[in-house]
Amino acid sequence: MDLSPLLPPGFLFCNQKFTHDSLVIGLIATDAVGTCPLCQTPTSRVHSFYQRTLADLPMGGKRIKLLLRLRKFFCPLADCPRKVFAQSCNSVCKPYARRLLRADQQIQTIGLQAGAKPGARLCQTIGQSVSASTVLRVIRKTPRLVVETPKRLGVDDFAFRKGRNYGTILIDLDGHKPIDLLPDREGKTLETWLQNHPGIELVTRDRSSVYASAISSACPDAVQVADRWHLLKNLSEAVERFLDTQRPAIQEAALAGVQPAENQAATTVTTLMETDLPQTTTEQPVLSPTQNQPIPTEKRYAVYQRTKELQREGHGIRAVARHLGAARNTIKQYFRQDQFVPRPKPKRSNLLNYETYLRKRWVEGETNVKVLLEEIKAQGYNGEYTILTTFLADYPRLVQEPALPPAQKGVRYSSRQVSRLLGLPECDWPVKEWAFLSYLVGQNEAIGQVRDLCLRFKVMMKDKKPDELAQWCKEASGSVGLSNFEKGLRQDYAAVQQAIGSIWSNGQTEGQVNRLKTLKRQMYGKASFDLLRIRVLARNWTGPPK
Ligand SMILES: [Zn+2]
After folding, report:
1. Ligand 1 centroid – CA 31 distance (Å)
2. How far is the CA of 45 from the centre of ligand 1 (A)?
3. Distance from the CA of 78 to the center of ligand 1, in angstroms?
4. What's the number of domains the chain is made of?
5. Which of 12, 80, 274, 520 is 20 to 30 A removed from 287 (C-alpha atoms)?
6. Contact 390, 323 (CB under 8 A)
7. Are residues 47 and 91 both part of a single domain?
């Protein structure tokens, strides 16, 4: 069989040997001429041979070990300081390497997709025995990608550790892929990157002023687009902050929104009558708490007898238990017993004899179970405290308790809840919230105005009508609730207008941030910036050069 297409180029097959986990292949270099690395003189004067052992790509789950037989040559030039030099094999492996280049590339590809430890385990299954540290080392040797500067760029920040330190991710919006990661979210870093990558025409970003000024100073001609989602989020936050100042109005509306009939019920004083107590229908209820239905004695006796038979036949406890479908501890007990011991009859309490007395005391107002227990014990009750508690649990507990203030349903509305409800068009208001909301909007002019502005802003964004923004801002500046939000919009006016009108948004950047978070968490927070960067950008890495 001709193995040459499978062998590294420039070598001839000599021999092979199988061991239990690997195939050892002996090869010799075909080129019998060497070139002195110092004086570049070619020669074929062989000094001696030497051998290098290298790992190749595994095959059939087995490791492939190559024994390369290489020459050493005499340098023919008399005055060259190098007298003897070794034949190089740089086309198939690096100097001092223990693996062929192609084996390294395989490990690299697996490591980039899976990470270090999973990568090492995957390598193990295909027969390439490497440690996680080796995979990491190989991943880190991935050549730095040369990215083309995109025309449209998405910028967003991400947390290495939330609240502590952040980085920046840059996305090619046309190519839908990350093109770089920056180690912080400082304006200066982004500015430097943008200066080194001229030609960007449009940048989508969140509403951070740091990014905004960095983009303006590095590429003043680029169109900036604020993120639509953040814009709506800022709006709802502004509404919430405003509603925080309107707590009394919300409270009033919540009270007005409750049906008057619901409030009446609790205000009447309840008096306990003898007839309110639960009726005991059966003569002899089982008062002892039983969880499971007890097994009848006959059945237990049958199991006992069968167990004894099987025991005599020499079967073990475990086997008998499995055979009879009984608990192992029960069978163990039967193994030890020489004769059947019936279960003791459950003790029945005589609580029902004191029922009339208990009812009388309860209506009189004595609801303390401990006191009642003492009283009936003195009369001859033989049961336990828990039985009495269970029995009395059905008795109404209204006597002697102070009258509760009227239940005011719907009083508690958080600002966030109200903000969400107000953001809905009237036809979508929930029926039970209707009275509350219509009272709130109708009676409070400021809240009504904020709601109106809020709805109009959403419609403007939905219909992509940036021209209406000026008029909206004019009205919002006069409103109590949204003037600060409007001030923020004015500071970033062009980008907000783009956010309303442009087809570009930062949505896919946010998606890429999610992908980044997944990769970060796969590496359990041990990933340093360089490793994270390599793995996030690995999507663009199409493999080693062919
Ligand atoms: Zn030389």
Report:
1. 18
2. 12
3. 8
4. 4
5. 274
6. no
7. yes
Which distant-in-sequence residues (6+ apart) come within 8 Å of 244 by Cβ?
415
Tokens of 458: 């959403």
Q: Tens of pLDDT along 370-425?
A: 899 999 989 888 888 888 888 888 777 654 454 545 555 556 788 888 888 888 88
Nearest to 247 by CA among 415, 409, 410: 415
What whole-number distance in Å separates Cα of residue 55 and Cα of residue 57? Answer: 7
Q: How far is the CA of 28 from the centre of ligand 1 (A)?
A: 23
Residue 377 belongs to a domain: no
Q: How far is the CA of 79 from the centre of ligand 1 (A)?
A: 8
- Cα of 96 from ligand 1 centre, angstroms: 21
How far away, in angstroms, is 34 Cα from ligand 1 center? 11
Ligand 1: distance of its center to the CA of 82 in Å? 5
Look up residue 435 and give its two tokens: 């009275």
Residues 17-54 have pLDDT tens digits of 998 888 999 999 888 898 999 999 999 999 999 999 99
The pLDDT value recorded for residue 40 is 92
How far, in Å, is the centroid of ligand 1 from the Cα of 43? 9
Write out pLDDT tens, residues 212-253: 999 999 988 889 999 888 889 999 999 999 988 888 888 888
Reading the block at residue 130, the tokens are 């490497």
DSSP states along 3-49: -GGGSPTTEEEEEEEE-SSEEEEEEEES---EE-TTT--EE--EEEE
Phi/psi at 226 (nearest 5 deg)?
A: -75, 160
Token match 């309840």: residue?
A: 270
For residue 331, tell me if it sits in a domain. no
Cβ atoms of 265 and 417 closer than 8 Å: no
Rounded to the nearest whole angstrom, what is the distance from the C-alpha of residue 13 to the centroid of ligand 1?
Answer: 30
**Per-residue pLDDT tens for 177-195?**
899 999 999 999 999 999 9
Q: Which domain holds residue 444?
A: 231-258+410-500
- If you measure from the C-alpha of residue 85 to the centroid of ligand 1, how many angstroms do you get, rounded to a whole number? 8
Assess whether 204 and 247 both reside in one domain: no
Cα(77) to centroid(ligand 1), Å? 6
User: For residue 83, how far is its CA from the centre of ligand 1 (angstroms)?
Assistant: 7
Give distance in angstroms: CA of 44 to centre of ligand 1: 13
Q: How far is the CA of 100 from the centre of ligand 1 (A)?
A: 27
pLDDT at residue 270 greater than cutoff 50 = no
Residue 259, pLDDT above cutoff 70? no
62 has which bridge partners? 59
pLDDT tens-place string over residues 325-350: 888 888 998 998 888 888 777 677 78
Calculate the alpha carbon distances from 166 to 38, 236, 521 in Å.
50, 25, 15
Distance (Å, whole) CA 526 – CA 528: 6
Note whether 210 and 244 are same-domain residues: no
Centre of ligand 1 from the C-alpha of residue 41, in Å: 6
9 within domain boundaries = yes
* Structural tokens at position 223: 């169109």
Q: How far is the CA of 87 from the centre of ligand 1 (A)?
A: 13
